[in-house]
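B., you asked whether I could sanity-check this one before it goes into the benchmark set. Here's the sequence:
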Amino acid sequence: MNFKKPLAATLIAAQMLAPLTAMVSQGASAQPAAAPAAENVAVVLAPPFINAPSYLAVEATSGQVIAEVNAKARRDPASLTKLMTAFIVFDALYQKQINLGQRLRMPERAWKTDGARLNLPPGTPATAEDLVRGMLIHSANDAAVALAIAVAGNEGEFIARMNREAKRLGMTDTNFLNPTGLSQQGHYSTAHDLTVLSLAIMREYPQFLRFFSEKSFTIGTSTYENRNRLLFTDPTVDGLKTGFTDAAGYCLAATVKRGPRRVLAVMLGAPSEAARLGEMQKLIDWAFTAYEPRQFYEARKPIQQLQVWKSTVDAIPIGFRDDVVAINVAGKTHEITTELTIPEPAFGPLQSGDKVGTLKVKRSGNLLYERDVIAFESAPAAPMWKRMWHSVLLFFKGLFK
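And here's what the prediction gave me:
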């Protein structure tokens, strides 16, 4: 099956991050959760106290919010900035503007960057893949700047592109001033916006997610271990990125796959590296224990054949680009239902990936999120004689309804 590259521009911000809960009182030692955006939400379990000033945990497949505290508070994102740098580099790779095997020379501007580095002297060649791995595994700032210059020609243009992409994705509380995450006045993001960005990376560029899960990599005579220590302590963790500066504190965007569920959690400002590891593990474990999934449809598995009129083919398989999964409090997944709408008759031409219907996922009658039903194959337009004949058939069919 050939699918179009998904468009995250409005889908991620508008359809994902659907509020799951209105949090109940969490006790004297707990933090107040941000008010949910939706009016009709159920009151369910409160998360444990998490020692971080800002965090957001979501079900990555559906975008349902599991828990949040100060998720839209603007904070220094540290090296979680590199998620946007990676997003743009991945697009350049997808568009074949650069390729992973391409050898790039380390610019002097990149060599002079402060912070974690690969320490390649100016002019030293390195493959784009090594620079991507250095940026994501070692959080190398010189690699981030070198990639920015390779993609956009200069750092300034790349930063402008970062902010354009942030706006396109709906990251309304984000402003980037560099591709590295080094602290600057006016360089900020939020747990919410970084979640939107992380979901966009996962949805648009799954072929590059392997870089986030590598535990180490070697370039020349140097070997670097991934700064995301959860990769070493929890085998279900497979990404994404750490960050730290004195101003930002300890930050982490973590992805976890257990059974049919995938959870994404973004934490900003933990007080120590140990707290970043322990508090994120606590949040993740709670998310998987407190809630259970109900899977309705599998990604890319046809749910039915759709009859297509005025086309060279009679019917095409249709289904969903992603798994359709929703979560609810453990023991109450029966409250989750779906409502499938496929307008008929359907007419050719249709392209593989075109929307042909909508699925609404609800809990106790309240909408959680919507998912597009898409065509898995193309249905080319029929020749004129067949289109006219189908018009006649549809006319008489309508008479007997």
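One thing to flag: The domain at 298-399 is CATH 2.60.410.10 (Peptidoglycan synthesis regulatory factor (PBP3), Domain 2). Otherwise nothing jumped out at me.
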